[in-house]
Write a structure and sequence with these properties.
Largest sheet: none
Order of helices and strands: HHHHHHHHHHHHHHH
Radius of gyration: 21 Å
Shape: globular
Strand content: under 5%
Helix content: 55-70%
Length: about 260
């Protein structure tokens, strides 16, 4: 008897793209008053639905990457829509002006603000954009520079360590006189620079000791400012226990923070 040829299953047709109207309707339906209050305490501004990040992640998995939809979501000005836009955008299709605009417009909204700042790290102009923002007269861009520098420290293997060593000196010089929101992201940058390489670990620990306690007013939230020295050492212990040479190598093995949050 001749064996029968297995029947090939037909490939599933691609899921239809979500429209802006459909996406906004799902975001609105998932919103809660409690989440709106929580986001507002963290600096988010209306309009917003109060959609949980768990729901955003479900939508992200369904959509994956849709640059056109991301741009449309951003244009709504809605906090939740912009958080979803951050997860599905393709930064490689964004020009310099668009990157500047997203960083500026998101700077007051803590959740999407830091992720908007990191988008240039996914392209070839990350260092140039970091320096443009760091030396800008625009307060929003100045703040955005430090999450970008921190992300570059973890993910840009080609950037010279000397650049990040210089940024540690800049942070030491100015962190205690910087605006409240900038102090917070500068402290985080010390931590992430210290996770890049063994040499920068030593340099960042020394910087943390010289800086001392960083005072940040987190408003009516449960957030606390991490102790940079303790956090650097804890992160190195965790990553090396997992078999990674550095925490930066560990981070590069994971999905992007803006997509996994």
């Amino acid at each position: 008897m001749t064996p029968s040829t297995p029947t090939k299953r037909a490939a599933k047709p691609p899921r239809p793209r979500m429209t802006l109207a459909e996406t906004m309707a799902q975001l609105e339906a998932a919103g809660t008053e409690q989440a709106r209050k929580t986001y507002a305490r963290h600096g988010a501004e209306a309009p917003m639905f109060g959609t949980s990040f768990a729901t955003l992640k479900v939508l992200m998995k369904r959509i994956d990457v849709d640059h056109e939809l991301a741009l449309a979501l951003w244009e709504t000005g809605n906090f939740d829509a912009r958080n979803l836009a951050m997860k599905i955008v393709d930064p490689r299709q964004m020009d310099s002006t668009a990157l500047d605009r997203w960083a500026r417009e998101a700077s007051a909204a803590m959740s999407c603000g830091n992720y908007a700042a990191t988008l240039p790290a996914e392209g070839p102009s990350g260092l140039a954009k970091a320096e443009q923002w760091r030396t800008s007269a625009d307060a929003g861009q100045q703040r955005a520079a430090w999450p970008l520098i921190a992300q570059l420290a973890l993910r840009d293997e080609q950037a010279p360590d000397a650049y990040f060593a210089a940024m540690l000196h800049e942070i030491e010089r100015s962190i205690h006189t910087a605006p409240n929101a900038v102090r917070e992201v500068m402290n985080r940058a010390v931590i992430e620079i210290g996770c890049r390489s063994p040499e920068l670990r030593v340099a960042a620990l020394a910087s943390a000791d010289r800086i001392g306690k960083v005072n940040v007013d987190h408003g009516n939230t449960a957030c606390e400012t991490p102790d940079a020295r303790a956090y650097i050492e804890k992160t190195w212990a965790h990553s090396t226990a997992k078999g990674f040479a550095t925490p930066a190598a560990h981070e590069r093995a994971r999905d992007l923070p803006r997509r996994r949050c």
